[in-house]
Specification:
This protein is an alpha/beta fold and 242 residues long. The protein has helices spanning 9-16, 20-27, 40-53, 68-76, 88-97, 138-148, 168-186, 200-209; strands at residues 56-62, 77-85, 104-109, 121-125, 149-160, 212-218, 232-239.
Amino acid sequence: MFSPEGPSLRELAVQALSSVERGYDLLAPKFDHTPFRTPDSVLDAVARALDRIGPFDAGLDLCCGTGAGVGVLTRVCRKSVTGVDFSAGMLAVARERTRTEGPRVDWVRADARALPFAPAFDLVVSFGAFGHFLPRELPGLFAQVHSVLRPGGCFVFPVVAPPRPTSPVYWMLLGFDVVMRVRNAVWRPPFVMYYRAFRLGDVRRELGDAGFDVDLHALPEFGQLPDGSPRVRMVVAHRRAA
């Protein structure tokens, strides 16, 4: 799962026994060599889909990590791009590795649950961050996104179809979540990272309650499941005008 440039088992253990913020500060220099980084194939597919529904002026990458999503935004935004994350270590790597000749890029350290922005963005994206939020935190998180979007702006993120119970991936993710829950029951500070807590039906309802109209766009690059449903979708939540 990890390249030779990725973290060692000991480094992963230290991260897992830290807080979320401290853990990502430690992991940041090697994060791009782990399976936790969103694959380029997903980033490229989202960029192509956004190009079809744009254009956009100002974009925000929510929980930007080392800046992979910022690279998507620089392809589809004309004026400015902002990456926000609460890990100083991840932001430091993002600043160092992100090079662009397109729109201006700014980096802001902040908690996604308390965003320090006015409604100045046409587009907010997020990649792979929702496992760090408990289901009860989603209403507040989506309210924050709503508050920084201009009327009619979009909140966009990809979602992968959940694996079937007959799949080895299903049991791997279930086992990971069980281990994390046991860890958080016996160790402090907690490290919130649950792969199976983000359910599309619940997310659509919470987005609607937060003031969004929600559309689902299939990403055809990833094909279909045996029942004909897409393997990967892109959620496009439009902030209502009023």
